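#struct-help
A.M.: can someone run this one for me? Single chain, 276 residues.
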Amino acid sequence: MHVAGEIAAASVPSSIYDVGTDGRPRILPSVGGICLNVRVGDNALAAVGDHIEPSVSVRAKDDRANVGFCVLACVGNKATVLSGDAKGETGVVTGKHGGIEHVMVDFNERVMAKLTIGDKIGIRAVGVGLELDEPGDVTIFNCDPDFFERLGITAGDGGLHVPVAKIVPAAIMGSGLGRATVARGDYDIQTFDPQMVAEYGLNELRFGDIVAIADADHRYGRIFRRGAMSVGVVAHGRSFIAGHGPGVTSLLTSPSGAIVPHVEPSANIATILRLR
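D.P.: on it. C-alpha cells below:
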C-alpha cells in the first residue's frame, strides 16, 4: 500500500525541562524535526539530546490516520519525497517511535539540506502480515520482506540464527514494557547501570543496530519471559529520564528461544542497506 505523512516539527516537553535520574533538570533537543548530523550508523548515546530521532521524523497530520501510517510503514520500506525542493528523492524507513508516534526515515545529507518541516513523504508500505514458510513460534513485526532477506538469517540447529550487533538483557528494558504497541512503536534500553553498560558494551550502541533482547517475548505486548528471544532495531537515541533510553523497534520474537543471536558488529541497517 502507499501511505503518506509529513515531516514533523521538532518538539520539547511542555515543561521545557526534563529531570534526569541524577536529579538534574536539562533542556535538550528531543523528538521530531530534521536531524542534519544524526543518522543510522552513528552512536546512539553520543548526541547531546533526549530521545533524538535520526535523520527525518514523519507522521500523518490526523492522529487517527497516523495509527495506520505507523503500523503499515515497515523498517526497510522505500520512502519518497512528494513535495518541496527535494521532491522525487528517496530514503528508507529505519524505525518507529511510540508515544510521540513517529516513523523515522533516513535520507542522505544532500537530500536533508533541501527538506523542510511539512514536506510530504510517501512510503511504499509492505511487510505487515509477513510470515515465514515454516515459522514455528517465530513472529515477524515491522519488517520489509526485502530487508528481512538481507539480514543474513539462516536456519539451523536451535532455530533461526540471526546476526546482531549487541545482546541486551530484558532486565534493563524500560519504557514501552507491557504495551501492546509492538506493531507501531518501540521500547527502551535503560543505560543507567554502569556495570550493565560495561558488561554488554551498551556505550557502543548505534542508531540502526540490530539487537537481540534475551528473555523477552513481544508477541502480544512486551513481557519478560525466561528463555524467550526477541530481535529489533535501535530507532532513537539515549535519554536521561528514568525508565528511558535508546528505543528498539521489534522485528522478530520467539517465546521458546527459537531465535539464536550471533554477535556481528556490522549488523546495522546502515551497513546492511548501504545507507552510509
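A.M.: thanks! The mean pLDDT is 96.
D.P.: also worth noting: The helical segments are 63-72, 109-112, 145-149, 194-200, 269-272.
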